[in-house]
Amino acid sequence: MRTASNCPQCGAPVEFLFSNAVQTTCPYCSSILVRTDLDLKRVGEMSDIADNSSPIQLRTEGIYRNRAFQVVGRIIYLYEGGSWNEWHLGFQDGKSGWLSDAQLDYAVSFAVGDHPRIPPESNIGRGLRMKVRDAELMVTTMTKARYGGVEGELPFEYWDKSEMVFADLRSNSRGFATIDYSEDPPLFFMGEAVGFDDLKLRNLREFEGW
Amino acid sequence: MGAPARPRIQSKALECPNCGGAVQLRGLAHSLNAVCPRCMSVLDVQHEQVRVLQKYGSKVAYATPLIPLGSRGKFNGVLFEAIGFQVRRIVVDGTPYEWREYLLFNPYQGFRYLSEYDGHWNFIRSVPGLPGFGGIDGRKAAFWEGGGFKHFQHAQATTVFVLGEFPFQVRNGDTAEVDDYIAPPKVLSSEIVPGEITWSIGEYTTGDEIWKAFQLPGSPPAATGVYANQPAPAEVKAGFWTAASTAVVLEAILVVMLVACMLFMSDKQVFKQSYFFRANTPGEQSFVTPVFELKGRASNVEVDLDTNLRQNWAYFNMALINEGTGQAWDFGREVSYYSGSDWSEGSSSDSVRVPAVPAGRYYLRVEPEMEAQPTSVYTTGPREVNYTVTIRRDVPAYWPLFLAMLLVPLPALFKLGKKSSFEAQRWAESDYGSATGGGSDEEE
User: What is the SS3 assignment for B11?
Assistant: First the structure.
């Protein structure tokens, strides 16, 4: 359900594409806005997002496992190998998903609330094996990341983080999981690697000469 | 309505802080490192401030990419641009081997690689997961998406030359532990650097396909030898399968013929009579048998001679004659048999087969001959012979069928040999081959 308000900073109309969004950014003045019961509250300002050449953008549409989604938001993380994007997907049924684009390797994941015992950050490392929902997973990468910016609508408030640690887990198939240690308890996401063509993406960015 | 349109993204050019040369970037913001084409310094291009990461020790490029950087080619309908190039080296038993890798880029589909060694190419992509380990035929193997890949080779690879740009850190001198696992035409490879293992999967591609995809001038370097995951050439595989399926069909036909012979050939004795002949008998020696009837379709007639010859020979002139038409089939047979305590030569019986004799009433004319006086020291038997003439109609001939059955599989076996020798050449280059001394010592 689409709802519209005005930006408390510049007065521009701010439209929500995703009914369960908690936070958005004003496309005109780059204010970070959080939804309250009544209106929008300005909590900060978007830093200039360093362009990392993702072909995905806000309002890109696609299909994952026969469910249509629209890209409504984005979080950028910076790490020593560059940056990656977590695109927030709004599904028609109001559910949130995430499409990660790490140097054009794509994966779709979902937050898992009733996750199993997750080892604390101090106890996790490469090679650690976990069994989650019948999936045999192994920690393959530990990544120290910095918050690189947000854009658009997110299902939670997310705008003032600094350093965080992620554990990436892989299975013997395309399945993968991520533990996000920026919250306590940590957030747990599960999903799978996807090919670019699998998602039938539309409304992508254009690249000169391509 | 909505946000202001974002500008289209363009590739950009920057200046080498070492030599001032122009460095064109094709990989958009994905590129972390780029090499100055003039001084070949490796540059950090991730940030606005370009830094020199590594200078190149020579003024001359170590190698020239066969696919010029900036070329675009289509693979499976997707356009890719060659943006990076590396030469990598492994050393096996003191001998260096070098191969070349091209980094391909599409701003939507991401990165792929092409590798080239001795004219053999692979189209490679990263594996979105973690292959499992196991064994095939007692050898270490890796498994990915249901496919099993046999371990082929382990080596330490050193990067000896880089050009272009990369979405990761590269330096001349970088090393990685590489393992190749094969399931032709595919190869699954792991690369281990401290703290990270990456998997990729490649598919064998011919130089011609590469040349066609990139529309390169001239022709690709000829492929030499058999490469790890090179599929057996179509003619080798097809050669075997064609020969094998032909053999199966022919064997089936032969079996049908054999069964038909057993079922439908009457193999009937139509005449049998015993006679006696003595050399030096005066007068006409030929005689005719009583008339016998040959029935059914035109078929063979077998005349068997069974004698009691010992250390002697006899010659039989014969003619099968149709009583009604007078048509005659003439034939002769020499029967000879000699033996000693531990040897023998010839046989005291013989047989003639006359093909395609129509039905009718027939008789056989027989004219026996023997030497009047022995002409050799071996001819010591008596100057006489007892013999029996047996005539059979519609006799199945099994041994040509059995011989054919033995010969028919030979071409397929020959082709199978060619196929096996192809596989032997493939594995000779592996850690398990005989060509490399002590190469298989990591097998337990």
Answer: coil
ipTM of the complex: 0.93
Fold of the CATH domain B266-395 = Jelly Rolls (2.60.120)
The number of beta carbons lying within 10 Å of the beta carbon of residue B346 is: 15
| Mean pLDDT to the nearest integer, A156-163 | 78
CA distance B385 to B381: 10
Among the four given CATH numbers 3.40.50.360, 3.40.630.100, 2.20.28.160, 3.40.1190.10, the one describing domain A3-45:
2.20.28.160
pLDDT category at B3 given cuts 50, 70, 90 is: very low
Nearest CA in chain A to B48: A50
pLDDT at A50: 67
User: In chain A, which residues have their Cβ closer than 8 Å to the Cβ of B32?
Assistant: 81-82
A79 three-class SS? strand
User: Does B129 sit within 8 Å of A193, measured CB to CB?
Assistant: yes
* pTM assigned to the model: 0.75
CA distance A169 to A167: 6
Q: How long a stretch of residues is chain B?
A: 444
Instruction: Name the token pair of A208.
Output: 């000169």
Mutation target vs A (from B126, B130, B198; most A CBs, 10 A cutoff): B130
If we measure between CA atoms, which residue out of B266, B348, B352 comes closest to residue B302? B352
Beta strands per DSSP E along B373-441: 384-393
Give the angle subtended at the CA of B190 by the CAs of B149 and B173, to the nearest 5°.
Answer: 145
Within B125-233, residue ranges assigned H as helices are 207-214
Q: Are A45 and A149 in contact (CB under 8 A)?
A: no
Which among B315, B304, B305, B318 has a CA at the least distance from the CA of B366? B318
Give contacts of B28 with chain A, Cβ < 8 Å: 53, 207
Whether residue A205 and residue B6 make contact (CB cut-off 8 A), yes or no, is yes
The pLDDT value given to residue A2? 52
B439 pLDDT above the threshold of 70: no
- Measured CA to CA in angstroms, residue A114 lies from B187, B321, B411 at distances of 39, 102, 65
Taking 60 as the threshold, does the pLDDT of residue B240 lie above it? yes
**Residues carrying CATH 2.60.120.380, chain B:** 266-395
